[in-house]
Structures
1.
Amino acid sequence: MKAGDELPPLEIGITRTLIVAGALASRDYQDVHHDPELARRKGSPDIFMNILTTNGLVGRYLTDHFGPTAVLRKVAIRLGAPNYPGDTMVLKGRVEEFDGDTAVVRVTGDNGIGRHVTGTVTLTVAAAVTVPPGGAG
């Protein structure tokens, strides 16, 4: 892995269940994340995903790529176009820096109406531990 490497994209279907479950899991009980009628009254065409769910999906994207030993050290994201039910978000990443066991990855996520998320994530990528044939000695 080196600076400039592109991560493979990840497509995530945006469902009502994902939006509501993410809001509940993060204890975000704002009506715009679970009640379509109240969301409409507030000017939104439907419920929409909260930032904590997006944050979790960005983390999942990176740990899926770098493996279960990767540790997220800093996640800095900014939201743009809302994620509404029935859309698809495509996450993409580009390694900005790679020094020793630390990577800095620029992440974007686009949906049908525009850029949903932009951010930078710093993570530690642990080297895989191998056990020699016959055990650890």
2.
Amino acid sequence: MLFICSQNRWRSLTAERLFDNRPDYMARSAGTEPGARVRVTAGHLGWADTIVVMERKHADYLRQKFPDAVEGKRLVILRIPDKFQFMDHILQELLRERLTEHLGVEW
């Protein structure tokens, strides 16, 4: 599972960390902006079976920049705004709730 946000500093990195000790999932994260901690590439997208973005603009970016790499992939938009810090408790709860809703992830 690949998590995408803008800067790969707060939301997507928090989502990746939630899966660190889970043997049933492999998770990575990246960002869409030039200054992202890890900037998304076609290689990241090729690795992932499921791509989870925080906002619609991230999905639009991926479809525009990497159309071949996202074709046929499961793309989930969580609709989580950019207003949380890394590992914020409310962010973690939102991620768990939305990942359960969209992907059936059990915690």
3.
Amino acid sequence: MSTAELHWFKSSYSDSGEPGSCLEVAPTPTTIHIRDSKNTEGPRLAVTPATWTAFVTYAADR
């Protein structure tokens, strides 16, 4: 799948307190793609679903 075909979305929490400070994700079965919502053509990060789950779990505990 090319990155042009990805379905990007933001968290429902991203419209709270700091509307310009959020990221977008585009999950696929093997990769979670991550980008800055303010710079959608800029650099992107791709991680495995296990890595994404570990990150979200870590962030939720903070």
